[in-house]
Design goal:
single chain; alpha/beta; six-stranded mixed beta sheet; three-stranded parallel beta sheet; 10 helices; about 45% helix
């Protein structure tokens, strides 16, 4: 956090930056520096820090993000459909990470709405400072104490290397489904290993270009296009080779669309 503060204050603000993209860092963590940025007329975009319709944080001009609550609901709907509405799920998250908490709450709400009697959800809420050490132990305990669990839902793809060894030793079929659509997870799904599906966001490169587009418009005083980062279900049925061309063909050469728009 200190290095981020130094970057905001000494590099971005002091060196006369016109815009800052705050990527997956809660604005509250750098509140004082955002005040300095606002005083200097710097346009700051909060990115991947909440749902699109949440209040804009002081010192920022907008939220550029996926709809994590809706994504959590969609993840639950996929689990319920896949299980025939019999799923016993455990969701893995860390509630101080706001977007993970939103997805978890969406998952719980949808399960309660669509399958209140025959499905269940338990939550492993990890200390963000000890995820690497605690995830495996807590998941193993949960699977041992509840032999009915047949779906494991970490709300971020990068947890899979910690989840997979535990699931592999459980001694029963367990479906693993996550969120984000990182390259490594798409490759695992394509190979039929460790992960059965993900709710994939648009490619990171597109997110970067779109965030720049938002900031540039704010600097120029133009209205926001109101982007919400799109997501899609990716499973063995539609993952293909796991490549960008197979998973998200509409994002191939997306840069040209931005360049054309900026040239108008």
């Amino acid at each position: 956090a200190y290095s981020l503060l130094q970057g905001l204050r000494h590099k971005a603000v002091a060196q006369g930056a016109d815009g800052i993209i705050l990527m997956a860092v809660q604005p509250a963590v750098v509140a004082e520096d955002l005040k300095a940025a606002e005083a200097a007329g710097v346009q700051v975009l909060s990115t991947l820090n909440g749902d699109p319709d949440e209040p804009v944080e002081p010192g920022t001009f907008g939220n550029f993000t996926a709809d994590y609550t809706s994504d959590g609901r969609l993840m639950a709907q996929w689990v319920l459909a896949d299980s025939g509405c019999t799923a016993s799920s455990v969701v893995i998250q860390s509630s101080p990470v706001h977007v993970w908490d939103l997805a978890t709450k969406g998952f719980e709400a949808a399960t309660e709405e669509y399958c209140p009697d025959d499905c269940s959800v338990e939550v492993i809420d990890l200390d963000p400072a000890n995820i690497a050490n605690d995830l495996g132990n807590q998941l193993q305990t949960k699977l041992q104490t509840n032999p009915d669990i047949d779906y494991v839902i970490p709300v971020w793809d990068s947890a899979i290397p910690l989840v997979a060894p535990v699931v592999a030793t459980a001694g029963r079929p367990i479906t693993v489904f996550a969120h984000d659509g990182i390259t490594e997870s798409l490759e695992l799904i394509a190979a039929g290993q460790d992960q059965h599906g993900t709710l994939a966001m648009a490619p990171p490169a597109w997110i970067g270009w779109a965030a720049f587009d938002e900031v540039a418009r704010a600097i120029l005083g133009q209205p926001s296009p109101g982007y919400v980062i799109p997501t899609r279900l990716v499973t063995p049925e539609n993952v293909g080779s796991g490549s960008l061309a197979d998973v998200s063909p509409e994002y191939v050469d997306f840069q040209q669309a931005f360049i054309a728009a900026w040239g108008e």
